[in-house]
Design goal:
GYF_2; GYF domain-containing protein; 2 domains; alpha+beta; 4 strands; membrane; single chain; transmembrane helix
Length: 166
């Protein structure tokens, strides 16, 4: 079985089960501080919950509650991913994209929404525990639409003013 690890904010792997067990035995990996994912599991989980992981006797591992660890304990988002507070770039991109649709705010909000959406996606790819990819994509799409819309609106206003020749 191939296991992907999330250690100190960085994704690593895939590793063979035997290799991970060897790193645990050598003290390189500390089960209470590492999240893991393998093909067939739904989400990242504490390393010690992966089937086949062997924890040496005497190694101090924090207890896992019945029903598995909560998303906050797994290093995830306690809101279930609905509000990506650990990915502020994605969250801000989302709101700026919405506000950018209003002609009054225009390009002031829509361009940063597009840029922050891309930053949010990059942060999500670096740390899958933080979530926020949907908010980032909404920020990117709305930022693009609002930038185009507001740009065309500004061009239209400039043409209308120039035609009147005050």
């Amino acid at each position: 079985m191939k296991i992907h690890l999330h250690v100190n904010g960085k994704k690593q792997g895939p590793f063979e089960l035997e290799e991970v067990n060897s790193q645990i035995a050598e003290g390189v990996l500390l089960p209470g501080e590492v999240s893991a994912w393998y093909k067939g599991c739904e989400d990242w989980m504490p390393l010690e919950m992966v089937p086949g992981i062997e924890i040496p006797a005497g190694m101090n591992v924090p207890p896992v509650k019945k029903g598995g660890a909560s998303s906050a304990e797994k290093g995830g988002d306690s809101t279930g991913g609905l509000i990506p507070y650990k990915n502020p770039s994605a969250l801000i991109a989302y709101y700026l994209g919405i506000f950018g649709l209003f002609p009054l705010f225009g390009l002031v909000f829509s361009i940063p929404a597009f840029i922050l959406g891309i930053v949010g996606l990059y942060k999500r790819s670096q740390n899958p525990v933080i979530k926020g990819s949907v908010h980032a994509w909404i920020g990117i799409v709305l930022g693009f639409i609002a930038t185009t819309y507001n740009g065309l609106l500004a061009i239209g206003v400039i043409i209308a003013i120039s035609q009147n020749r005050f």
